[in-house]
Design brief:
The chain has 327 residues and is an alpha/beta fold. The chain has helices at 16-25, 48-56, 77-91, 110-119, 135-149, 160-163, 169-176, 192-205, 219-224, 239-251, 254-271, 279-290, 308-323, and strands at 29-32, 62-65, 95-99, 124-127, 153-158, 181-187, 210-213, 229-232.
């Protein structure tokens, strides 16, 4: 395949909706929500509205629903559509809806699901990587979604172990030039070099693009590297702690930034650790500890089983962390 065959829609103006999302979310936190589950794996619908309202009161600019933190790829389309509508109505905030393939599902399933999410009120779509896809297919998918669904898109650079398709600098450069792609979310886990290189490459390719950090373990540094906003799984609970870091950085209050970053980093060390997929359950435990979710539905039925001793250890350390005076 030649380079010219890959060049997307250069010179095509972005739709007004793309500019509006960039303006509304720049400098803001998008909290990636948990999905409350019953032990049998069904959605605990009665817990959603109180959780959404509680999150909204703690500083996020928008909510991300059905993304990796909310196990969106494991949800039935009807459940995901309902969650997008319910979170939006209960919080009064814009919703970025996760768009991901269930295990083994064909790529063709994404377009009708995207339409349903638009109808449910999604303001934008976070498009998860398709495992094993090549550059041509990735760009084609984003172009098709933009043209057919008419919602702003966020490309999602997720580390290889979690995604099966970690985008490189060239792929991201192609994506952010597409007219319906308003930005990119970076979640490289602990690969600082890839995060820096992709961030710089995205801005070089499309200076107006909006770069979201999803780096729960590199949050403060990723802002210093140039990220404009945040879309974070660690903000599924204690979202005010994540918002404080971003607000201090945006305001140029470096002393407050260092203090808020130290607190958030301590929380990240407790929750984003091996087994890494266990972070969803750990954040659900944090949400229950904070009173955002009832303990009986603070469950991740799709992640690794974590021992009860780990929950007790986490709660003990959360109590200690919350009791520490502000630095």
């Amino acid at each position: 395949m030649t380079r010219s065959a890959r060049i997307p829609d250069r010179g095509v103006a972005s739709p007004p909706a793309v500019a509006a999302v960039r303006d509304d979310l720049r400098g803001g936190l998008v909290a990636a929500t948990l999905t409350p589950f019953h032990p049998d794996g069904t959605v605990a619908r009665s817990a959603v509205a109180p959780y959404a309202a509680a999150l909204a009161a703690q500083g996020p600019r928008a909510l991300a629903v059905g993304v990796h933190t909310g196990r969106g790829s494991r949800l039935a389309g009807a459940d995901l559509q309902w969650l997008v509508r319910e979170f939006g109505q209960a919080s009064g905030l814009p919703v970025v809806a996760g768009l991901a393939l269930p295990p083994g599902a064909p790529v063709d399933d994404l377009l009708p699901l995207a339409v349903r999410l638009r109808e449910a009120g999604a303001r934008a779509l976070l498009v998860s990587p398709v495992p094993g896809a090549d550059l041509t297919s990735i760009v084609k998918l984003h172009r098709l979604l933009g043209a057919e669904v008419g919602l702003p898109l966020l490309a999602f650079v997720l580390y290889q172990r979690a995604s099966g398709c970690q985008y490189d600098v060239e792929t991201v450069a192609e994506l952010v030039r597409l007219p319906w792609v308003c930005g990119v979310k970076l979640a490289l886990l602990d690969d600082a070099m890839a995060c820096q290189d992709i961030l710089a490459g995205a801005l070089a390719a499309a200076p107006d693009t909006l770069v979201f950090t999803g780096e729960d373990r590199m949050y403060g540094p990723s802002l210093m590297w140039g990220a404009h906003a945040a879309l974070l799984g660690i903000a599924a609970a204690l979202p005010g702690w994540s918002a404080a870091v971003l607000d201090a950085w945006t305001d140029g209050d470096h002393a407050a930034f260092v203090a808020a970053s130290a607190r958030l980093d301590a929380l990240a060390r407790l929750t984003f650790r091996e087994p890494m997929e266990g972070y969803v359950q750990r954040m659900a435990w944090v949400a229950a500890w904070q009173g955002l979710l009832p303990a009986e539905v603070a469950i991740d039925p799709f992640g690794p089983a974590l021992p009860e001793a780990e929950r007790r250890w986490l709660v003990r350390d959360l109590d200690a962390l919350a009791a520490e005076p502000a630095r």
